[in-house]
Amino acid sequence: MAKFNSSKIFILLILSVVALITPIHSSDVERKVYIVYIGNLVETDESPSSYHFNMLQEVVDSRFLTKSLVRSYKRSFNGFAAYLTDQEQEKLAGHEKVVSIFPSTTFYPQTTRSWDFLGLAENVHRNPTAESDTIIGVIDTGIWPESESFNDEGLALLPRNGKDKLIGARYYNSQSPTVDSARDKDGHGSHTTSIAAGNYVKDASFYGIAQGIARGGVPSARIAAYKACNGDGCQTTDLLAAFDDAIADGVDIITISVGGDYPSQLENDVIAIGSLHAFQKGILVTQSAGNRGTVSSVMPWIFTVAASSTDRGIVTKVALGNGTLFTGKTVNSFSSTGTSVPVVYGKDVSSRCNELSALSCHPGCLDTDLVKGKIVLCSLFGGVKEAFRAGALGSVSSQRLFFQSPAVADESSVVPLAASALNPNDFQVVQSYFNSTKSPKLDILKSESVRNLDAPLVASFSSRGPNRILTDILKPDITAPGIEILAAFSPMAAYVKSFHPNWSPSAIKSALMTTAWKMDPTKDSLAEFSYGAGHIDPVKAVDPGLVYETFTDDYIKMFCGLGYDSAKLSKIFGVNITCSAGQHGRSKDLNYPSMTSYINTSVTFSEYFTRTVTNVGLANSTYKVTTSTSPDYNITVTPNILTFGATNEKKSFDVIISGKINNGKMVSSLLEWSDGVRKVRSPIVVYPNNL
Ligand SMILES: *[C@@H]1O[C@H](CO)[C@@H](O)[C@H](O)[C@H]1NC(C)=O
Ligand SMILES: *[C@@H]1O[C@H](CO)[C@@H](O)[C@H](O)[C@H]1NC(C)=O
Ligand SMILES: *[C@@H]1O[C@H](CO)[C@@H](O)[C@H](O)[C@H]1NC(C)=O
Ligand SMILES: *[C@@H]1O[C@H](CO)[C@@H](O)[C@H](O)[C@H]1NC(C)=O
Ligand SMILES: *[C@@H]1O[C@H](CO)[C@@H](O)[C@H](O)[C@H]1NC(C)=O
Ligand SMILES: *[C@@H]1O[C@H](CO)[C@@H](O)[C@H](O)[C@H]1NC(C)=O
Q1: What pLDDT does 476 receive?
Q2: Which ligand is closest in space to the CA of residue 619?
Q3: What CATH number did the domain enclosing 76 receive?
Q4: Whose CA is nearest to atom 6 of ligand 6?
Q5: 370 with 351, same domain?
Q6: Is Signal set as a keyword in this record (predicted)?
Q7: Above 70 in pLDDT, residue 62?
Q8: Nearest-CA residue for atom 1 of ligand 6
Q9: C-alpha 91 – ligand 2 centre gap (Å)
């Protein structure tokens, strides 16, 4: 398993700067940036860059040759990005070495809406706790570490004393020359990063998960940040560069909450390509399902995480001195402020701004000496960030957002100081209480969970299946708590990995999927297409009993079965592959922890799956199967008892589900292996082509 040593960390400290390249036009032809994917790294006598340059030389007009190359991918896989005319692109597409060539496009960071990460940019605590060796590479909008050593030039990084969470940062600016550091100007990456660092999960005692992590003695993972996105989105050339670096830097897990609008074939999807090469190096890649429409994270080696809306159950109460209690939104991990903290109005503590701006605590308006250690009332939620900047101890605001009024958010946002966001009517009452009371008092309480979390729902914004590219691979794979999507998820995968450092990415993924909490299909008509295997439970995932593993060879077999060309697969995987004739299969034969079959609309069906499980529990153990039941289908599992005599022993079984499609609806069913203690559950989904 890849581990950082000091020289690797040192390499990470060197920011990679992509040459500033402006669009190039010759007199009459326009050049666009294309990504040329060549496949796995291969041994050659020439350096990759000159190899790429030579390929370009064969097709590009010599007058533009030196300006054509945008970036070489050469650390973890093979390819480059270049400015090409349509004609040059066509010529290069026919080159024997090229797997695929496709235009660079823009992907977007995925979260619910802007305020979900508002105020978080500075929320990277520096708890001097023992650290895990697991390194999470976060590909996103960058970081904003709270550290004097990180200056505005963005060149400095944190000290290498072995205790820091953030151990390195790189940035990419192939098409945004104004980006000149890994500093996060947008907040998304800092949100993702600060939560991935584990602080949030720990501090908020998130659903009891934090206790599990503490018990396991793995407080958190370390972070390497890869800034491939900015306010304009993420250029796919830069995303691919970030993968190229993160894999070579030796991270253990890559997390990316970025995606395109539509699913693509492997060879035209930079995240699919980058994550495949990561998988081959033993690195698990987690990706958010997406922000809208059909899920675009479709490849089986990626762990695709949907967002559940459980965070709606987290509230922060505000108590007035006269006994009135209000319930506001925010995820506030700070303990009660008590009622002795002075409360001030934004407008009374600003010497710089007009009344309206001051009331809303507009950026830059508050005077530090007037708000330090106090609670500030702000008429807009965005003011929370300004209150924090100015050194306030707390903030009570209206839920209304900057720029989006009268929008009222319905999801709780993590805050960097004691803060609650009240609905606008309640905020009015707080104001009038202050206006009419001689010595007003106010207490901001720590967040609490107000809802039974047994049946979380998938957030409306989270993308749904089915998988339009690999129709028999269920996507998304799993659901994790709301706003923090992947971010909360990463430390959980790191948590599982810390117990089992030698587990393959597919074993970790299987463990998290088969131990997930079951979700309620009656509350979501798209059932598994919304939530995958269910809601993540990392504590259970440490001891899954059995795992479904897949290795590179299984993926090769799958692509052969899907009709891929042997020569192309050989380039992608970097090994000689000969798909045998007649090897026609579907992705449903992959040894995946869920079972899915896409069928032509027919009233009756009979679908067959075969799977192999590996015993990672007690050496001597016996698992019995149970299946869900319904008038619409029958499930037969053969054998229905698996007896193991050793750890790592493998056993195979067959599943037949037969039945009828009811009113064109998907069949949502499951099977579960249990040894009496551990439960290893897989969803079985059959869906007709009208879905
Ligand atoms: C309370 O007083 C502030 C400032 O004097 C004023 O802007 C606000 O409208 C008043 N609010 C209420 C509800 O009385
Ligand atoms: C507290 O004060 C507010 C504002 O004046 C008022 O609306 C509310 O009814 C008061 N609560 C109690 C319990 O008196
Ligand atoms: C693949 O096959 C080619 C020729 O068929 C051979 O030269 C090469 O060494 C083989 N590569 C591997 C990794 O076996
Ligand atoms: C469904 O039927 C169409 C036309 O008969 C066929 O081309 C297609 O391969 C079938 N799809 C599946 C999943 O069997
Ligand atoms: C498993 O069972 C076999 C035979 O029943 C026994 O010889 C062996 O010691 C057991 N192994 C463990 C780890 O308990
Ligand atoms: C399930 O199996 C039973 C017993 O063989 C049979 O009567 C029933 O029709 C089957 N149901 C479906 C939906 O195929």
Answers
A1: 95
A2: 5
A3: 3.30.70.80
A4: 634
A5: yes
A6: yes
A7: yes
A8: 634
A9: 76
Ligand 2 binding pocket (C-beta < 6 A) is: 320, 322-324, 429, 432-433, 436
**75 within some domain:** yes
605 CB under 6 A from ligand 6? Answer: no
Kindly give, in sequence order, each residue whose CB lies less than 8 Å from that of residue 314, ignoring residues fewer than 6 positions away.
Answer: 204, 329, 331, 412, 447, 448, 449, 450
Strand partners, 67: none
**Which tens digit of pLDDT belongs to each residue from 164-206?**
556 777 888 876 666 666 555 554 554 455 444 444 433 333 4
Q: What pLDDT, in 10s, does the model give residues 601-635?
A: 777 999 999 999 999 999 999 999 999 999 999 99
Looking at beta carbons, which pairs linking 260-264 to residues 24 or more positions away fall under 8 Å?
Answer: 260/105, 260/107, 260/236, 260/296, 261/292, 261/293, 261/296, 262/294, 262/296, 263/294, 263/295, 263/296, 263/297, 263/298, 263/467, 263/468, 263/469, 264/296, 264/469
SS3 label, residue 392: coil
Question: Distance from the CA of 311 to the center of ligand 2, in angstroms?
Answer: 29
pLDDT band at 141 (very low <50, low <70, confident <90, very high): low
Strand blocks (E) in 379-496: 394-398, 418-422, 442-444, 448-449, 478-481
606, 627, 629, 634: residue to mutate for ligand 6 pocket, most atoms within 8 A of CB: 634
| In-domain check, residue 98 | yes
Where residue 154 falls (left for φ over 0; alpha for ψ -120 to 50; beta otherwise) is: left
- State whether the beta carbon of 436 lies less than 6 angstroms from ligand 1: no
Q: What is the CATH number of the domain that holds 252?
A: 3.40.50.200
Nearest residue by C-alpha to atom 10 in ligand 5: 620
Q: Say what the pTM is.
A: 0.74
Identity of residue 98 = V
Distance of CA 268 from the midpoint of ligand 3 (Å): 26
Sign for the pseudo-dihedral over CA of 94, 302, 239, 15: negative
Residue 331 and residue 378 in one domain: yes
Query: Which CATH number fits the domain that encloses residue 616?
Result: 2.60.40.2310
Distance 690 CA to ligand 3 centre (A): 45
Q: Are 238 and 173 in contact (CB under 8 A)?
A: yes
Full residue range of the structural domain in which residue 332 is found: 313-451
| Residue of 151, 150, 179 whose CA lies nearest to 165 | 150
* Residue whose C-alpha is closest to residue 333's, from 451, 272, 399, 417: 417
Nearest CA to ligand 4 atom 6: 600
E-assigned strands of 475-572?
Answer: 478-481, 546-547
Query: Using one digit for the tens of pLDDT, what is the confidence trace for 278-303?
Result: 999 999 998 888 776 789 999 999 99
Is the distance from the beta carbon of residue 576 to the nearest atom of ligand 3 less than 6 Å?
yes
Is the CB–ligand 6 distance for residue 634 below 6 Å?
yes
94 lies in the same domain as 77 = yes
For residue 493, tell me if it sits in a domain.
yes
Closest CA to 151 of 197, 182, 120, 189: 182
User: 305 and 319, same structural domain?
Assistant: no
Quote the pLDDT of residue 46.
79
- The rounded distance, in Å, linking the Cα atoms of 274 and 259 is 13
DSSP per position, 561-581: HTT--HHHHHHHHTS---PPT
Q: Write phi, then psi, for 495 (nearest 5 degrees).
A: -60, -50
